[in-house]
Amino acid sequence: MLGKVRIVTDSTADIPSEVRERLGISTVPLKVIFGEETYLDTVTIDPEVFYEKLAQASTLPTTSQPSPVEFSDVYQRLLAEDAGSPIISIHLSAALSGTYQSAVIAQSMLEEEADITIIDSKSASYGFGLRVVRAAEMAQAGESKERIIEAIEQLERDSRLFFLVDSLENLQKGGRIGKASAFIGSILNIKPILSLDQEGIVTAVDKVRGSKKAMLRIIELLKQSFGDEPVSVTMAWTSHRQTAEELGELIQREFNVQAMDWTRVGTVIGTHAGLGTSAVFMRRL
Predict the structure, then answer these.
(1) What does residue 173 show for φ and ψ, rounded to 5 degrees?
(2) Domains of the chain: which residue ranges?
(3) Is residue 88 within 8 Å of 135, Cβ to Cβ?
């Protein structure tokens, strides 16, 4: 008889620790590196400390994916606990990180009879974290691997995400845009609205002058997908919650919101998105 499905993810899913613990989600941390100091995301550094360090840093930290061995260790532990348990492992977009590939290599290192499904979310942060949570809820309820995979594929189709970036500075430092564009953007108070395309690549959906106009533009974009349908919303932020709260209030007024939750954008995604970033993750119910 097959055991209960076990769910694995990585730390960029930005799932609150209490939710991970309650649902038994195994999480493999990425690393964030400030100079000579290396930290394990969600393990040896939390967002509060990270954003304080980021604000003081003269150069951007770097990030690093987990090794295949780190994934293999987690898979072997779960298989040792229950050899009959299928494992579903859901990860950060392969277009953004080698994390997914590390998981695939780890799978190949194990015995062929191990039932491990590796999924490239083609998303980031709670954009795929909400799928991990849904998968874990279904696993706890005893649903089959096939039903869980079908449900999270549907959830992918039913979800949208947008990041409102406060500044172009981190994108420029990370090589995403040129220095001239960053300079012009800071002068004109341009606020980029980012999302991920179907291939899991970060894309600028729009660039709007001023935070208020950017928020209204996000409302317009979400209306195109959801209209007046009942939705569930998760709001997230990096260093300053105020913008996310303002956007959350607008969303509650404009949409048929049945539930609104909050999470923190973690250290790895925050490295590239930068201070002052807010995000909205919306799904139809």
Answers:
(1) -60, -35
(2) 6-30+65-157, 159-284
(3) yes
